[in-house]
Amino acid sequence: MEYVTAVPHPRSEAAEPARTGRRSLAVALLFGALGAAVALLASRQRWAEGTASVAGGAFPLTAKGSDVTGVPAALAIVGLAALVAVFAVRRAGRFLVAALLALSGAGIMAAALVSASDSTALDEKAAQASGDTTATVAALSHTGWPYVAAVGGLLILLAGLLALRFGSGWPAMSGRYERGTDRPRKTARPVDPERPEEIWKALDRGEDPTGA
Fold first, then answer.
1. Which of 75, 82, 147, 188 could form a Cys-Cys staple with 101, CB 3.0–4.6 A?
2. Where is this region: Disordered (predicted)?
3. E strands of 55-144, at which residues?
4. How far apart are CA 94 and CA 102, in angstroms?
5. What is the pLDDT of residues 143-158, one digit of tens each?
6. pTM of the full predicted structure?
7. Residue 68 confidence class, pLDDT cut points 50, 70, 90
8. Euclidean distance between CA atoms 185 and 112, whole angstroms
9. What is the DSSP string of 166-209?
10. What is the DSSP letter of 53?
11. DSSP code of 116?
């Protein structure tokens, strides 16, 4: 009669952290890369539009995300670099890089949300178009792209938090690529004097292979 026990197998217990590490690594890579792409794309889109009063009437004005603020695009690039650097460092260095990744995402979110209703860029364009330094934009409206950039920042933030939580178990760059690491040298095999090729070499040197 066979008995079934509820005790988990040791091998399955040891494999669970490895599976968790692989899943968290895949999700962090996806979130980090996707978040940076979304933030960069959103920074190139139209965030605000309005008009300026000129001699010929109302002059249409538009402002892209990069005109309003350059922070999201810059931090997206920093986040990508930090995402790659996570695998090149270990221990405390990995923790610091993961923190930088999370802070990059938080910075993108903050900059995008603060700039969602900003009119400074369009006011400057209105002053240039009208020739009046005190002119401001009229009929001001905003698009949803700043919030898209904030979503990209959120994804980068989540990638950084995953790296902080599970990064210690992720693989690192192979040691053979690290500077100053010497490869192990192969030890030479001992010479067998009884081998035919060694006997012929001894005869060529004028030695007696029999040792007599």
1. 82
2. 176-212
3. 57-64, 138-142
4. 12
5. 999 999 999 999 999 9
6. 0.72
7. very high
8. 55
9. HGGGS----GGGSTTPPPPPPPPPPP-TTSHHHHHHHHHTT--T
10. E
11. G
